[in-house]
């Protein structure tokens, strides 16, 4: 499985082998295998209903897998003891705290569940309020704060006991781009402290913040890759050079480019003007100088610029989903539980 081919040689904190979750005929997760190395930000991305939340619930012990082997921090989630649970933090998708308690009171209540002593607890809660930028709202009822502030309060509560492993289910859902950036800043800080994070998201652009990304569709794991690896997968292992020439020079430029042995394909991007070309090669950085040199042999071509093109992850994701649908058209209509 792709999860085994990790770029990180640290021990795995999560291991899944051929895991299924079904409710009768309805499939939530189908034959899922992956590894999550210690100290990584591991992203789980896919369309709504693809099985991300079901996976999180199995990893935290809320659901038992129908079959397969699943271990978190070396233990089976269904048999977690108190010590194992204290090493795990969970930020759920929906707000589950007390609306009639203040921000501080909610934090204080969660800390009491973990048995934090008063003096240690107070210092920790102050640190967390600063971390999630909620100090000014500490005495405000949870029902009176904004949706984004509620997400930050959920994050603070999931970290109150300083867990080794944090599960964050759609932590940035429904929050503005500025706040999403702050969430990811916080996640990177947690990583520098040696923590492991498994984060689910529907915002495909957020995969660039992850060390590794698992892509799901219709309850199935399609691949586990680095963010850059996803881009290469979308284009058949190739990289892309974006070239701009004058519109009247595009035909000649195409003719020269197609004769180069390292060029796999030349295309004009959708909705781009004449003169904009994408050239598919094995190594964009190494091939750009060679390409410029060859185009320079035709003095009639007015070349404006050439640079490596990094397609947005939204585009990458669409391509990967289309490829998956072409490989397995029956999965398009497969009924998947959105839990």
Q: What's the CATH class label of the domain at 2-87 and 163-232?
A: Alpha Beta
Structural class computed from helices and strand pairing: alpha/beta
Instruction: Specify the CATH homologous superfamily of the domain at 2-87 and 163-232.
Output: P-loop containing nucleotide triphosphate hydrolases
Indicate the overall shape. Answer: elongated
User: Strand order of the main beta sheet, please?
Assistant: 5-6-7-3-8-9
The CATH architecture of the domain at 2-87 and 163-232 is 3-Layer(aba) Sandwich
Strand residue percentage: 25-35%
Instruction: Give the radius of gyration.
Output: 24 Å
| Total DSSP helices | 10
Helix % is 25-40%
| Biggest sheet features | 6 strands, mixed
Counting DSSP E segments of at least 2 residues, the number of strands comes to 13
Return the CATH topology of the domain at 2-87 and 163-232. Answer: Rossmann fold
What is the helix/strand order? Answer: EEEHEHEHHHEHEEEHEHEEHEH
End-to-end Cα distance, whole Å, is 25 Å
Low-pLDDT sequence parts:
1-8, 331-339
Mean pLDDT: 89
Question: What are the defining features of this structure?
Answer:
339 residues, alpha/beta, Rossmann fold, Alpha-Beta Plaits, 6-stranded mixed β-sheet, 4-stranded antiparallel β-sheet, disordered N terminus, disordered C terminus
What can you see in these coordinates?
This protein has 339 residues and is α/β, with parallel strands linked by helices. Among the domains are: 2-87 and 163-232, P-loop containing nucleotide triphosphate hydrolases (Rossmann fold), CATH 3.40.50; 237-309, Alpha-Beta Plaits. The chain is 33% helix and 25% strand. It has ten helices and 13 strands. The chain has helices spanning 52-59, 82-86, 103-113, 118-131, 147-159, 177-192, 227-234, 250-258, 284-295, 313-327, and strands at residues 12-23, 26-37, 41-45, 67-72, 88-91, 165-169, 196-201, 212-217, 220-225, 239-245, 265-267, 276-281, 303-309. A six-stranded mixed β-sheet has the order 5-6-7-3-8-9, sandwiched between helices. A hairpin with a 2-residue loop joins β8 (212-217) and β9 (220-225). The longest helix is centred in the middle third of the chain and has 16 residues, at 177-192. The protein starts with 11 loop residues before the first strand and ends in a 12-residue tail after the last helix. Residues 1-8 and 331-339 have low confidence and may be disordered.
